[in-house]
Write a structure and sequence with these properties.
The complex is a heterodimer.
Chain A lengths: L4 E2 L7 E5 L4 E8 L4 H15 L5 E11 L1 H19 L3 E8 L4 H11 L6 E5 L3
Parallel strand pairs in A: 3-4, 4-5, 5-6
Antiparallel strand pairs in A: 1-2, 2-3
Chain B lengths: L3 H10 L1 E7 L3 H16 L5 H24 L5 H4 L1 E8 L2 E11 H15 L3 H12 L13 H8 L5 E6 L4 E9 L1
Antiparallel strand pairs in B: 1-2, 2-3, 3-5, 4-5
Classes of the chains: A alpha/beta, B alpha+beta.
């Protein structure tokens, strides 16, 4: 399995996989110039990795995403959902900004889209 | 050069910030930071601040994606305007850019369509659109106007003005 690491910029989040505990972290804000170009390698990596691993947790701490990043986040969850149905233990920890109730609503909206474990936690600041 | 009239116009329309020029990604980021810093000094919640920022991002990226898609790159045509100002007790974010004649009608129809939706309809349309495959080469997910509507306190408004035989100037405003 290949590792994945993408450094954060002011408009795109850090992407980092921790092989010791099978956690994929996405941290930062997401409004890149082209969200599809930014997330395409992440989605390909995820699809390949979920062929090899028995479990994977997505730990996401993205307090703002633009609309096209929202679409990419949905596609990522779709890949996890599909893996879940193949018997892989997938889960999400979604961290929201407690000072912004809209970021909690966004987490709730996403939770409705999946059937595997989805925890919503306040971001520790 | 006398900027007094411009300043008066800004004051009269409640405009706090304005940028007129090419919407390069780096500029979008810089102005975005400036918007957040400026609003941080106002007595508003983090939630409202981020709503204004989010609407700003959707508007400028919409414009940038449209101009790129249509290959409109000549600086004097591609230069667009974004303003952030006060409106009643809230804020108004407006973008202004050149739109080809052939695209104006569908654009206005799309805004009318979103404006006619209830909150629940906006939410369900958003979920539906999120499930759609993105066409190859597309730069957006077709969610921008729905995202703006989700965050708005009032309906969007627009203005269209004739420019020349092939294009018009389109202004879109969203209220938070």
């Amino acid at each position: 399995m290949e590792p994945i690491y993408i450094k954060a910029t002011s408009s795109s989040p850090e992407i980092n996989f921790e092989p010791d505990n099978n956690v994929l972290r996405i941290i930062g804000e997401s409004y890149p110039e082209n969200s599809f170009d930014f997330y395409a390698p992440v989605i390909s990596w995820l699809k390949a990795t979920l062929q090899e691993l028995p479990e994977l947790t997505l730990d996401i701490a993205v307090t703002y995403m633009n609309s096209s990043s929202t679409k990419c986040a949905f596609d990522i969850m779709d890949v996890l959902e599909e893996a879940h149905w193949r018997g892989i233990k997938t889960s999400i920890i979604w961290r929201y900004d407690r000072e912004n109730e809209r970021s909690y609503e966004m987490a709730e909206d996403f939770r409705e889209e999946v059937t595997f474990p989805f925890e919503i936690e306040a971001l520790s600041t | 050069m006398d900027l007094y009239d411009l300043r008066e116009e800004f004051n009269k329309s409640g405009i706090m910030m304005c940028f007129n020029g090419p919407f390069y990604h780096s500029i979008i980021e810089e102005i975005g930071n400036a918007v957040r810093n400026h609003l941080a000094a106002e007595n508003i919640t983090q939630a409202v601040l981020m709503e204004v920022f989010a609407v700003y991002i959707e508007l400028v990226q919409n414009v940038r994606n449209y101009l790129t898609l249509r290959g409109i790159t000549r600086p004097e045509v591609a230069a667009s305007i974004i303003t952030i100002g006060r409106s009643g007790v809230g804020y108004v974010v407006s973008s202004g850019n050149v739109v080809m004649n052939a695209d104006v009608e569908s654009l206005c129809l799309r805004v009318d369509e979103v404006n006619a939706m209830t909150r629940d309809e906006i939410k369900s349309q958003y979920r539906k659109q999120m499930r759609c495959e993105v066409k190859p080469g597309a730069m957006g997910a077709g969610l921008g106007l729905l995202d703006i509507a989700k965050r708005s306190s009032e309906k969007m408004t627009y203005a269209v003005r004739d420019l020349d035989a092939t294009s018009k100037f389109f202004t879109l405003s969203a209220y938070i």
